[in-house]
Amino acid sequence: xxxxxxxxLLATTPAAAQMSPVGCNALSASAEDASARLNDALxxxxxxxxxxxxxxxxxxxxxxxADVEDARIAAEMAMREYTHALMDxxxxxxxxxx
Length: 98
What we know:
about 0% strand, mainly alpha, about 100 residues
């Protein structure tokens, strides 16, 4: 993810030189808004009810439930990293990097 952010920053630096501060700030606000929306979605992914129900599930469903939980955790971690990258990008592009 850090590689993607570095590529974005390198690619947008020349573009930022051509963008107006209004354009840079609009892009910054958009990235910040996207990060906030993803944070809201992450709050819905906690999975407390699912995790507490796992011990009571039929035996044949427990392995699949564990896979679901592992996938949820992996998705949550990736989304958190993405929200951090969006905020880093938002900060970097704000006021065209000035």
